[in-house]
UniProtKB/TrEMBL annotation:
Record carries keyword Protein biosynthesis: no
Pfam families, alphabetized: Septin
Family indicated by similarity: Belongs to the TRAFAC class TrmE-Era-EngA-EngB-Septin-like GTPase superfamily. Septin GTPase family.
GO cellular component terms, semicolon-separated: cleavage apparatus septin structure
Protein name per its UniProtKB record: Septin-type G domain-containing protein
Keyword Ubl conjugation: no
Annotated organism of origin: Chytriomyces confervae
Biological process per Gene Ontology, one example term: sporulation
């Protein structure tokens, strides 16, 4: 007898189970009209889709159709046996009206509606063992590449949404800024976000228990802290989207021809990598922080909503 009972196989048992049930990830795009929201969300996962036209409707001439209502589209994508149900929610641009008071309401309502439907399913006695998760895990918030500052409307909308979901700010159409302009714009946006006390993902304070408990960071914690800091440094990601192919070295690749050459975000090949943080954003969403986004949505945002609703029921 060696005393070995084999419980170390639990990790592979868990893995099998998780693989079987698959994962769901729900991403939303928010921002003023014409900033390239539809284009970018099409671009992010396009290479994974059989239909390379992307997730959202594109008109005959390849131009995105102007978005007039909140629209969700799901696709199952598969990579090395891992199935991901990806839902992308595109929203109409805000700020087009004469009166933009409360223009964030439809978006906030959509996000809360998903919490509400999840809660209802959770409270059903005969609930399914697994509830379909339509909760929005990440909101890409598009900032116009003005090079100046956030508008008061941007600040108001970002604040409202950050109260109910994980907000990730991005600088839209960043091909229109020079590197210098982009660097100072980034700094300015960061300062403003901090000044206005808007919480964007990943939250710095999710990971601060360290010094008070007298325990030094262990290696994992240190690595995680470093990753979060590195990511917080890049945010807001300066992105470029493209719905059409351009020819590079005789090969058609998806990209955008700019003053600085071709930017190709799809294959991770970027002629001048400095000019586009598209790949960094995609890695952040898919490789490093997808599970975090899902967990924080469930444990922070949904939990907050749930508590409020249940308190209201009682009171
Ligand atoms: P939405 O209103 O935010 O959904 O914006 P669309 O995706 O409909 O794009 C509006 C226009 O901007 C289209 O003509 C796109 O081809 C163009 N566009 C999208 N992304 C970029 C980008 O990164 N750079 C530039 N220069 N143009 C873009
Ligand atoms: Mg659109």
């Amino acid at each position: 007898l060696t005393g070995y009972v084999g419980f170390d196989s639990i990790t592979s048992q868990i893995e099998k189970k998780l693989l079987k049930r698959g994962f769901a990830f729900n991403l939303m795009a928010v921002g003023r009209s014409g900033l390239g929201k539809s284009t970018l969300v099409n671009t992010i996962f396009a290479s994974h889709l059989v239909d390379s036209k992307g997730l959202l409707k594109i008109s005959e001439n390849g131009q995105p159709i102007q978005t007039t209502e909140i629209q969700s589209i799901s696709h199952i994508i598969e990579e090395n046996g891992v199935r991901l149900k990806l839902t992308i929610t595109d929203t109409p641009g805000y700020g087009d009206q004469v009166n933009n008071d409360n223009c964030w309401e439809p978006v906030v309502k959509y996000i809360k509606d998903q919490y509400s439907s999840y809660l209802r399913k959770e409270l059903t006695p005969t609930r399914d063992r697994r509830i379909t998760d339509s909760r929005v895990h990440a909101v890409l918030f598009f900032i116009a590449p003005t090079g100046h500052a956030l508008t008061p409307l941007d600040i108001a909308v970002m604040r409202r949404i950050s109260e109910v979901a994980n907000v990730i700010p991005v600088i839209a159409k960043s091909d229109s800024l020079t590197l210098e302009e982009r660097a100072s714009f980034k700094k300015r946006i960061k300062d403003e976000i901090e000044f206005h006390g808007i919480r964007t993902f990943p939250y710095a304070d999710v990971f601060v228990d360290t010094e008070d408990d007298g325990q030094p960071l262990n290696d994992d914690e240190r690595a995680e802290r470093q990753l979060i800091n590195a990511v917080r440094d890049v945010i807001p990601f300066a992105v470029v989207g493209s719905e059409r192919n351009v020819v590079v070295d005789g090969k058609a690749v998806r990209g955008r021809r700019t003053r600085w050459g071709v930017i190709n975000g799809i294959d991770g090949f970027v002629e001048n990598e400095d000019h586009c943080e598209f790949v960094a954003l995609r890695n952040f969403l898919t490789r490093t922080h997808m599970q975090d986004l899902i967990d924080v949505t469930a444990m922070v945002h949904y939990e907050g909503y749930r508590t409020k609703q249940l308190m209201a029921l009682k009171g």
